[in-house]
Design brief:
By secondary structure, this protein is an alpha+beta fold. Helix content is 14%, strand content 32%. The protein is globular, with a radius of gyration of 13 Å. The chain starts with 5 loop residues before the first strand and ends in an 18-residue tail after the last strand.
């Protein structure tokens, strides 16, 4: 969320063959921003501890939310 091109993000764990689980981020970009998945992963690697940055990034137009605005992470995969 602290990257200037990111408007909103949700992070979930997904299964991984050898590691058991991996970090995946669903990201909504800010209006007019351009950013690639690889650029965001590289930025995260510089800014966060090795076990915290997402290895998989998916850009989305919107995130599933409840009526009160909470992100429904169980619907993300």
């Amino acid at each position: 969320m602290s990257h200037p091109a990111v408007s909103l993000a949700a992070v979930v764990g997904v299964p991984h063959e050898s590691h058991g689980g991996e970090i995946k981020a669903f990201v909504i970009l800010s209006a007019g921003a351009s950013l690639t998945e690889d650029e965001l992963v590289a930025w995260g690697k510089e800014q966060m501890a090795g076990y915290k940055y997402p290895r998989i990034v998916t850009f989305v137009e919107s995130l599933p939310m409840t009526a009160t605005g909470k992100i429904l992470k169980r619907e993300l995969r």
